[in-house]
Amino acid sequence: MPDRSPSRFLLISAIGCVLASAGAALVPVVTGASQAFVGSITTSGLLGLVFAARNVQLLRAQGTPSLPPAVLTTVFGIWFMLAPLLYTGVGFLATAGTQLAGTVIATFGLYVAVAGLAGERV
Questions:
Q1: Going by C-beta distance under 8 Å and a sequence separation of 6 or more, which residues neighbour residue 86?
Q2: Which own/partner pairs from 30-37 qualify as long-range (CB within 8 Å, at least 24 positions apart)?
Q3: Angle 60-66-72 (CA atoms, 0-180°, nearest 5)?
Q4: What's the pLDDT score for residue 88?
Q5: Which helix (DSSP H) or strand (DSSP E) does residue 1 occupy?
Q6: What is the pLDDT of residue 4?
């Protein structure tokens, strides 16, 4: 029976996206950002969390990344990097926290997506 487990780094990358998605959803709430920003990012963060968690679930079950949740996780990361620039009254901490979470999600989400494209356990 072949080993179906992904590499440790690949799994940690996917789990990091889950944690960063949760962080992105919480940062605007705890930093007192504008209501519009809180609503948008918290909703996006929860939805991104669903895809990031599904990415981990499929990665553990199949041993290789599944492209749809990996790509959607990356898209949410890009959104978290750009969103603070589109809203007014966000504040420094909410901007920095959301963009940091977005950078982590986009970077490691893209790594998982590229590994999925390559069909590897990297």
A1: none
A2: 31/91, 31/93, 31/94, 31/97, 32/91, 32/94, 33/87, 33/89, 33/90, 33/91, 33/94, 34/87, 34/88, 34/89, 34/90, 36/87, 37/83, 37/84, 37/87, 37/89, 37/90, 37/94
A3: 115
A4: 87
A5: none
A6: 74
CB contact set of 112 (below 8 Å; sequence gap of 6+): 10, 13, 14, 17, 55, 59, 65, 70, 73
What does the pLDDT read at residue 1?
Answer: 43
User: Mean pLDDT, consecutive 10-residue segments, the chain of 122 residues?
Assistant: 78 97 97 94 96 96 92 97 93 96 98 88 54
With contact defined as beta carbons under 8 Å apart, do 95 and 84 qualify? yes
Question: Both tokens of residue 79?
Answer: 């959104």
Phi/psi at 88 (5° precision): -100, 155
Q: Nearest to residue 73, comparing CAs of 42, 40, 51?
A: 51
Tokens of 84: 């603070």
Task: Provide the phi-psi class of 2: left if phi over 0, else alpha when psi is between -120 and 50, else beta.
Answer: beta
Instruction: Give me 81's structure tokens.
Output: 């990097």
